[in-house]
Amino acid sequence: MDYTHLMILIWSLWAASLLLTVMRGITRWHSQRQIFADDYFVFGGILSLTGLTAVITRLLPQFYLAGAYAAAVMQDPTTPMPLPPDVFIARTQTSLKLMFSQMLLFWTTLWAAKFSILFFFRRLLNGLPKYIKAWWGCFAVVLLLYLACMLSNFLTCKPLAKYWSSTGCSDPEDLVRADASIKFATSADVVADAIVMILPLNILRKLQINARQKFGLAMIFSLGIIIIAFALARLAQVTKATSNATKDPATVADAPVLLSMWSHIESSVSIIVATLPAFRYLLNVKIGRTQGRSNTRERSGGKTTSQVAGQSRTRRVLSGQWGGSLNTSMSQKGSVTENDWGSETELRPIQGIEKRVEYSSTSGRRTSTSEDLRSESRA
Predict the structure, then answer these.
(1) Which superkingdom heads the taxonomic lineage of this protein's source (predicted)?
(2) Which of 63, 105, 197, 355 has the smallest number of Cβ neighbours within 10 A?
């Protein structure tokens, strides 16, 4: 891909990511009047992506120039440099330093998206101590994988100062190390995405909701598959370019260009994916409208108040209006009980309308003695 088309692609992806991030913030504030930790991670991710976009825009012209010059030299060794030697070398060193910072921004952007999805799920686990402990375990592993990816960036080229020398890490052993580094970091990336998905999908399997709601949640929690697909595509393209560079020195500048392009694509996709859960309420508003009457018929068809309330609460969780947790079972007294999630939790009051009916026995018959309708609302 030529430089102009690559710049159009990069800045278009950045604009799409920024637009969705802004829309996410507006949507979250409109629906809940507050910003949560998962929102802040997305905001941090878009800042990191902005820095990544600027860095790539700054460094790519020099690599395109170096690539064209290397190809020309292979054809004609007497080809003069396109710039004065000292200027050409200085620009190359600057671009290599930017390349180093690019990788730090890349991993930071990716992990900001992962942490956003993790903390989105964390808000649904209030009152479930068993799964909160599992969540903290997932968080610790994902954090360690982020630190490992950052560390691998410092170990790719030895000594580190060689990274931005006039020749860069272009020796055969350096290219082998670079190939191993990107394979390790991509593996860590994929494992982190898998960890982010496994816990919520395991809980979803036990959640007592209808098939449509379960499918919607499964789609939200499986979004990491998209990031994994782009990570594997990035790995395939970059390792291919690195392998070609060891065989043909004229293509040595292709690897940085492909690495920059695919790093930006994966980073942009990760931010876009991280924003999507905030828009889930748009679908569920429609679900609520189409299912409102059917829920009324279900009540008259023998469903208990707790079952109806549980479904209503699930819909509020999906729509972003529920401030509590995803507990799905209730006891009549609201005491500590074993719920469908497999952990004991003290159930919290339900938003909306609560109906309380008391009965007394007279001559073997039950008669209604009092009925109290109470409306509670909670932010």
Answers:
(1) Eukaryota
(2) 355
User: At what angle are helices 280-300 and 305-319 packed, to 10 degrees?
Assistant: 170
Q: Which of 361, 306, 332, 333 is nearest to 369 (CA)?
A: 361
* Adjacent-strand bridge partners of 368: 359
Neighbours of 212 (CB within 10 A): 14
Handedness of CA 335, 338, 343, 349 (dihedral sign): negative
**Mean pLDDT, the chain, integer:** 75
Q: 298-352: per-residue pLDDT in tens?
A: 444 444 444 444 444 444 444 444 444 454 433 333 333 333 333 333 333 334 4
Cβ distance 121 to 54 under 8 Å? no
Query: Given its phi and psi angles, is residue 375 left (phi above 0), alpha (psi -120 to 50 degrees) or beta?
Result: beta
Rg (CA), the chain: 28
Distance CA 211, CA 209 (A): 7
Give the C-alpha separation, 180 to 64, whole Å.
Answer: 25
Half-sphere exposure of 133 (CA within 13 A, CB side): 3
With 0-12 / 13-18 / 19 or more C-beta atoms within 10 angstroms meaning exposed / middle / buried, residue 20 is buried
For residues 203 and 342, is the Cβ–Cβ distance under 8 A?
no
Residues 188-213, mean pLDDT to the nearest whole number: 83
C-alpha pair distances (Å), 106 with each of 16, 110, 298: 17, 6, 50
SS3 362: strand
